[in-house]
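Trying the structure run again after the queue cleared.
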Amino acid sequence: MNNLIKIVLLAIFIFIAGCASMQNGGSWTTLIDGEVGLNNFNRNGDANWTAVEGAIQATSGSGSSHLVTKREYDNFIIRAEFWSSDDGNSGIHMRCSEPSRLSSSSCYEVNIFDQREDPRYGTGAIVNVAEIPEPRPKSGGKWSTMEITANGDHLVVIFNGMKTVDVRDSTHSKGVFGLQWGRGTIKFRKLEVREL
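Done. Tokens:
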């Protein structure tokens, strides 16, 4: 009888652990970590993306260019560590339905752009969707972190531990995501995604 009770309790434990695992989504997939990087993306544009000192970086190009994921995502969390020059114009575009044309109208664009002419949509904002509160955060000249959650119509951005966006918007539901180079220097030394 004791063995039967142990087997039943073990089966219940395995079932509960499996349910908790399914509720928390999948495991983290590393796209950039200092050893892997460019092979996980397609290039869109002519920015000079290269692997340098444990990071993927771009410093020049003609117009906005992107590294675009090879597959689509719908609900997910993205965690990124990046460095931007003071004049840098970059961002993480997500749920882009047109992989060859990433923009703030065809995707959600989580901005990395301290010197944006309209600072309401600067670093930590989602362009044309969610403004950032004052005092507005800056990323120039230092390593920063960003965590982006897209779960249904609920979008959350946490920049260096501060929640800058918590909004509901259903414009884009699924697509690739891309790392942007627009101006200055941008480096990504860690990028991982977990599907929800």
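Residues 7-23 have pLDDT under 50 and may be disordered. Worth checking whether this holds up in the mutant runs.
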